Structure formats: structure tokens, C-alpha cells
# Entry
Amino acid sequence: MESRRQVYLDHNATTPLHPEVKEVIRDSLEIFGNPSSMHEFGRASRQRIEAAREKIAAFINASPQEIIFVGSGSEANNTVLSIFACSSIHCSCGTPHRKSIITTAIEHPCILESSKCLSERGTNIVMIGVDAYGKVELLQLQNALNHDIGLVSVMTANNEIGTIQDIKTLAATAHAQGALFHTDAVQAVGKIPLDVRDLDVDFLTLSGHKIYGPKGIGALYVRQGVPFCPMIRGGHQERGRRAGTENTLGILALGKAIEMREKEMGEEAKRLQEYREFLIQTFRVKIPDLHINGHPQDVLPNTLNISFDGAEGEAVLLYLDLAGIAVSTGSACASGSLDPSHVLLATGLSPERAHGSIRISMGRGTDEADVHYLAEQLPAVIARVRGMSSAYVKES
# Structure
């Protein structure tokens, strides 16, 4: 019997380990010394950690001392937002005087849930909207800024629809009114070029498992001199900014993942953009009543979010899974919810159309055969799901 083809198209949820990252992990298993110890074993760990820090800093044009290793992108994002609720007089750079925060309706759940928690504790949170393509509306940001806004937090690229924001303009707008700027770049790092000096951001978040590194490791860029208050306290690790013995294996793997992104990202982006355009053209011909979500140009090259009238997204996902194809109905962090995507609702989609969406996110291992297999299977799946639904009425 012929084995079933397996096609992984959920790279925005997580990525497989890069072969060279695996090799680094295997080769580093005996690097067990505590990096804070002064003996030879500790120095061996410290030397390698600092080398990885330098790689990551160079990749985004930061200084090594501006990089803090954390346990995840969610931890990094929580850390930044918590700074503006901090009243401690013992923070490493002093506390910000402005306490209000502006963020957007399409952020990752770790930003939205942190904002909700801070709001319940008295922090003023201002939520601004996006247009039909998921772009932050600049006028809304300008109108929301005032003398009490301490931070504006906007993700670089959306995890569900792939829309890329004009971070440079948004950061300049925030700075003009005296606010600091944070961007959750977890989905953008390693897919598009990012330069923290050119963007002029104060904080930037990245995560290992989105760029073919392991889970449980991330990094936070903190511009030198901006206010900072540690969320995790204890020891002196990370220059007093994040307590806890460093995850040596994770850090070394993240450093290698970044190194490989620098080598592979450019050609990969071109290839995946071609695949994306092929799928859009094919589906528009073969599948009636579909809608492409996200910006038509300012979008991640690997990400394609589509809504199908009269076809439930979860049913589409399950039938594709039976065919060996893995896609998503939205953010992996929200997949336990029966509610429609908050991102798609924020762009103005109806709940029905939002429920009928899937996200295809390609990666370095995606090849032409994978894309053609999806192009062959999806039209039949949509027809089958619509055939079982009383909600689908073909447009005349």
C-alpha cells in the first residue's frame, strides 16, 4: 500500500528543528556548567552564550548588551507590558512616568490577555483598530496618543493573516508624542529583514520555535537607556534583567537558528512568495466564493489566509488532515476557542466568514510537490464540506 503523503503547512504555529540546530544541540549536551560560575565549566557555557548573543544582536542590528534571553515570546511581551505597571524604585533603569498603553485589536493573545490583566489592575489600556487588510490605522494612533501614553505595542507581522505593519512610521509617531514603542516581531524575524536602528523601536520580541529553533527560548531587545523593570526577579543573570540560570542549550540553538536564517531567508522568501501567488491564482479558478484575507502586498511571503463561504474552517482542516495536509484555522494559541478569530473580526469580516477560514503557512521544507498536492486536494475538500452544509448558496 502506498504511504500517505504528509505536508506540513502550519509553520506560523511552530517550525521543525533545522538540521544544523539539531547538530548544535547534540554537540552541546556536555556544556552543562552554570554560566554564572567562575570555573572552567562555567566559563565554557558563558563563552558560548555570549557568542550566540552577538549573532542575534547582529541579525537585527542591535548591540549584544541590548539582548535579553527569555523563555518565550510570550514572556518577552509580558515583560515589556509589565514595565508600565511597575512602581518599584529598584528597577535597573528607573520606572516610566507615563503608565498608559496603546495596542491593537489584532495582537497575539499574550499581548491582549496581558493588557486585560493590567487593565483590571488599574493600568489604562487603549485599543485601536485596523482597516480591512489588517493595517493599523495611523489616524487612530495619532488621536489616541496623549501625555499619559507611555508605550505603543504593535506586532510587526500578524500571525494569522500575515499583514506587515509600517513599524517605522508607527514608532516615529509614538516617539513624536513622547511614548516608547514595542513590536512583537515573533512572526517577522527570519522571514523579512528587520533592523532595530532603522525601525527606531525601543523593544522587540523574537522566539526560537518560529525560526527552526527549539521551543522554550526567546529573546527581547531592549534599547539601551530605556526604562526597564524585570518581571522575573532573583539572581543577577542577564545583567539583572531576567533572573534564573540561563537555558544554555536553548540559547546556543537559537544562535544557530538565527545564523541559518541569515543564510537562507532571502532565497526562501522568493520561493515561498511564488508558491503563495500560485495557490491564490489556482484557488481563484477552482474554488468559487473565496476571499483572501490580509494585505495584498504588505504580507509575509509564507502566509495565506483564505475564507470560504459556506464551509466551516474546522471541517476543512480535518478533511485536509485526513489527506495528510496540516493547516490551521487561526492562531495555535487560540485553537481551543470556539469563537471566530479576533483578527478576522477586527478586519470587518462577519463571524460566519471568519469561521470559514484557514491559514496556510509555508516554510523552508515546503517544496513544489507540496504546493501542487494542496492545490489538488483543497478544491475537492471545499466542495465536499459545502455539499454537507445548508449554509452555502452559490453566488449567481
